[in-house]
From TrEMBL:
Its main location: cytoplasm. One of its GO terms (biological process) is mRNA processing. PROSITE patterns: DEAD_ATP_HELICASE (PS00039), HELICASE_ATP_BIND_1 (PS51192), HELICASE_CTER (PS51194), Q_MOTIF (PS51195). InterPro entries: DEAD/DEAH_box_helicase_dom, Helicase_ATP-bd, Helicase_C-like, P-loop_NTPase, RNA-helicase_DEAD-box_CS, RNA_helicase_DEAD_Q_motif. The keyword Transport applies. It comes from Hypholoma sublateritium (strain FD-334 SS-4). Keywords: ATP-binding, Cytoplasm, Helicase, Hydrolase, mRNA processing, mRNA transport, Nucleotide-binding, RNA-binding, Translation regulation, Transport. Residues 253-413 form the Helicase C-terminal domain. Coiled coil: none annotated. The lineage of its organism: Eukaryota, Fungi, Dikarya, Basidiomycota, Agaricomycotina. It catalyses: ATP + H2O = ADP + phosphate + H(+). This is RNA helicase. It is an enzyme of class 3 (hydrolase). It is found in: Cytoplasm, P-body.
Length: 491
């Protein structure tokens, strides 16, 4: 029987002098919830990992494994198939990246780990995690997605690639053309597996598996597992080790509120939220690409820095927006459900559902963009009369309660107690005038009619150091903010 916690034979690291030379980042002292702290006490050094990999882990700021990492990594290193279910933002990516990197044999110039993700942005992020954790190992990581030229990928694959990260369609294309040789790839990972096994991707996945060896190790990770995963497990996995850390579905560090409004009040409500909340960075979700662009324009006109992203934009523009937002160039990002999956931006402490989602799965993934890795976050939902039944349904399906928004929101629920100047409120130029305007007054209703009263929201505003001055607002160009430099090239 496999042992996933407790003491495992340590590697021969009797001399700890190598730790002294590590360039560790500044310690993150923000409080964390039990979603990431409720472990059995296993250390990364208990997992028989290569020293070079440990160096990358510690220099990335990792201190101790989260519960999903503690459970999954030892099992993955035993080369067992894995079916793992854990909450958003609890360390799933590292849970499969670390064992994938550990199993790479540098003497073989072959693709030895294939990591599949459903979106291009998640592919870029996952490949970056591979590079950061494996930076001392000398291995080669490549990312490939649709929306970019095949020529660059073909040239890159003519060189050594040990770990290939990408979206299913592009990797199938490369494998079908004989450019990506997966015949000796022993590790096959599917992140956000429920999405990858949806009807949209399922035929591609079936074809892709035919290019891998029969004795491959298959690992599936996700926060939600519909019935279609059971069919895949029975057909393509060998006695998988099942991990389920979903005793509850929503993150404990994310406080959820709803504001009952009319459609025409939404922009004014959003404006009030911006003026009152202390937003470090926020992601604002809309239900259509057209509404994303319209709302981004409105937010910009109100005097707030704002980028937007959706699936109909050029890939180069999406890459630029994602890169700039991640680096703190802008405080607010309006987007469609393109960015609900796996995107990990630690500075995001507020998620706003400008349009309330239609189902619980989308809701769960959206609010999981805040409160990453056990930290605090806030999810605010603008709910109209038409959304009232969806609100009730999502509460029932997730076993959670979304409270009516109070007059004043305690900053301690979503702002880390860091102190210092960085927590001071910064205001857009029109802000002083806007605060004098009356708050919207949504009518109180009983729960059956979207239950509960809500008016406005309180708190303070942002702490990302970039200015929010009107003269520095982004200029939109072909669906993305114009930048002063060329977008980075991800390889």
């Amino acid at each position: 029987m496999l042992k996933t916690g407790g003491s495992i034979n340590r590697p021969a690291l009797t001399n700890d002098s190598w730790k002294a030379g590590l360039q560790r980042p500044k310690k993150d002292n923000r409080p964390q919830t039990e979603d990431v702290t409720a472990t059995k006490g296993t250390e990364f050094e208990d997992m028989s990992l290569k020293r070079e990999l440990l160096m990358g882990i510690f220099e990335a700021g990792f201190e101790k494994p989260s519960p999903i990492q503690e459970e999954a990594i030892p099992v993955a290193l035993a080369k067992r198939d894995i079916l793992a279910r854990a909450k958003n933002g609890t360390g799933k990516t590292a849970a499969f990246v670390i064992p994938s990197l550990q199993q790479v044999d540098l003497s073989k110039n072959k693709i030895q780990a294939l990591l599949l993700v459903p979106t291009r942005e998640l592919a870029l992020q996952t490949s970056q995690v591979c590079k950061i954790l494996g930076k001392h190992m000398g291995l080669q990581v490549m990312v490939t997605t649709g929306g970019t030229t095949l020529k660059d990928d073909i040239l890159r694959l003519s060189e050594t690639v040990h770990v290939l990260v990408g979206t299913p369609g592009r990797i199938l294309d490369l494998a079908g053309k004989g450019v990506a040789d997966l015949s000796e790839c022993p590790v096959f990972v599917m992140d956000e597996a429920d999405k990858l096994l949806s009807p949209e991707f399922a035929p591609v996945m079936e074809q892709l598996l035919s290019f891998l060896p029969d004795d491959r190790q298959v690992m599936l990770f996700s926060a939600t597992f519909p019935m279609i995963v059971k069919d895949f497990k029975e057909k393509h996995m060998k006695s998988p080790y099942e991990i389920n850390l979903m005793d509850e579905l929503t993150l404990r560090g994310v406080t959820q509120y709803y504001a009952y409004v009319e459609e025409r009040q939404k922009v004014h409500c959003l404006n009030t939220l911006f003026s009152k909340l202390q937003i470090n960075q926020s992601i604002i979700f809309c239900n259509s690409t057209n509404r994303v662009e319209l709302l981004a324009k409105k937010v910009t006109e109100l005097g707030y820095s704002c980028f937007y992203s959706h699936a109909k934009m050029l890939q180069s523009h999406r890459n630029r927006v994602f890169h700039d937002f991640r680096n703190g160039v802008c405080r607010n990002l309006v987007c469609s459900d393109l960015l609900t999956r796996g995107i990990d931006i630690q500075a995001v402490n507020v998620v706003i559902n400008f349009d309330f989602p239609k189902n619980s799965e989308t809701y769960l993934h959206r609010i999981g963009r805040s409160g990453r890795f056990g930290h605090l976050g806030l999810a605010i939902n603008l709910v109209t009369y038409e959304d009232r039944f969806n609100l009730y349904k999502i509460e029932q399906e997730l076993g959670t309660e979304i409270q009516p928004i109070p007059q004043s929101i305690d900053r301690g629920l979503y702002v880390a107690p860091s102190g210092g100047e960085e927590s001071q409120v910064q205001r857009a130029p029109q802000q002083q005038q806007l605060q004098q305007q009356p708050h919207p007054q949504p009518a109180p209703q009983q729960r059956q009619q979207a239950q509960g009263a809500s008016s406005h929201r309180n708190g303070h505003q942002q702490q990302v150091p970039q200015q929010q001055q009107q003269q520095q607002l982004p200029q939109y160009q072909n669906g993305a903010p114009a930048a002063q430099y060329r977008a980075p090239v991800y390889r």
